[in-house]
Amino acid sequence: MRNLKNVDTPNLLEEFFPHKLPPRIVFTGKICEEIDGRMVEFDPNEALKRDLHISDTTFRDGQQARPPYTVKQIVDLFELLSRLGGPRGIVRMSEFFLYSQKDRDAVLAVKDLGLRYPRITGWMRADKGDLSWVRKLELTEAGILTSCSDYHIFHKLGKNRKVIMEEYLDVVRAAIDAGIRPRCHLEDVTRADIDGFVIPFVQRLAEISEDLPEEMKIIVRLCDTMGFGLTYPGVPLPRSIPKLIYKVTHEGGIPPERLEWHGHNDFHKVHINAVTTWLYGCDSVNGTLLGFGERTGNPPLEGAIMELIALMGDKCGIDTTAITDIAEYYEKVIGAPPARNYPFVGRDFNMTRAGIHALGLYMDERVYNIFDTAALLKRPPTVSITDKSGADGVHYWVNDFLGLKGNKRIRKTKLVKIMRWVKDQYDVHGRTTAISSEEMEDLVKKYLPEYYEKRMKRPARKA
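and the corresponding structure tokens:
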């Protein structure tokens, strides 16, 4: 039994919950995983010393899940990606289809921006003919589709492992001869024979890279195409992410700085699978804005951004306010608003409808806000008025609308008429919808005219 430790001041665990940043992710020891019959240790704190970063596939995989972007939309989003990633290039590269004229126009348009980051990379099949557009657009790198499971090798491509490996290697060599750095996409790796095909293949890629300058050495992208990857300890290959990354780095000869993870969300694991790869030896996580991607989507890039800040305990030059501008661009320009409760970008992601939560916000924002969303995302916490809001919800909403803080806030006793009106909407009139902001504003104007007039003389606070 432990004795209660009564204290005079609260222990808010601020080393983990700084509020000015996303909650810190802290590791107190090493992670162990059984691989090939022996226990292997991974040190997360050592992993955080590497050059962890994010790559983008919004304009490639992201366009396989929605209507195509216009060239202008691609240019605008690319600029926002650059701003988000900051001067250190946390969003390091962005990949593009090259097949249509519009795709090629988009590549030329973003090249004309002259931005250092993200770097531009193309995408192609394992076909020498596809190299022509990479050369014509003067790109220095291209992703090459190298499907690696027997599902793809035998049933999609109609070949066998030996034939397909030689075809892949032939295209890789041709790209290098053309001055193009290959980024080999190991499609469906979490259903592949790791020892029988994947490791022999990446060993040959590592061998080809040995005599190449650093900027030409081959990059390997591990593609969890169907979302089968798992982070749980004790899971066997090919689904085990820790084991897979260990084998590729230690047996395959591909170092962390040339390894990338690309996942899908078929089993709701896309984010945790992706960011966990950082800890086990993969420097680059591939994502898309708002998680748009084929079928269930790719790792949401904004989620990876917040995870990286939480791991590092530092913003790393990232401009988090760009996340809100990106969400507004999708809503107002593209016409594809995020789901209202979608983390970080949904219109209601930091909105509460419960009166007890509103009371918590009123007493101290930290009680019910995940971090300082006003500073990091230009999104202060809000309250929606429903039958669950009670007096505390109305109290918070009115004071927040009027911009009143501390001892200047209006007491509940002055809000009785507004509270009664709200209660009657549900108890008397049987209302089933939330009270709109416009209705609440009209109530303030009617019952608190002197406060309302002062509020209208000030610029409206941007929500």
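(Above: one complete record from the training split.) Residues 161-177 form the longest helix (17 residues).
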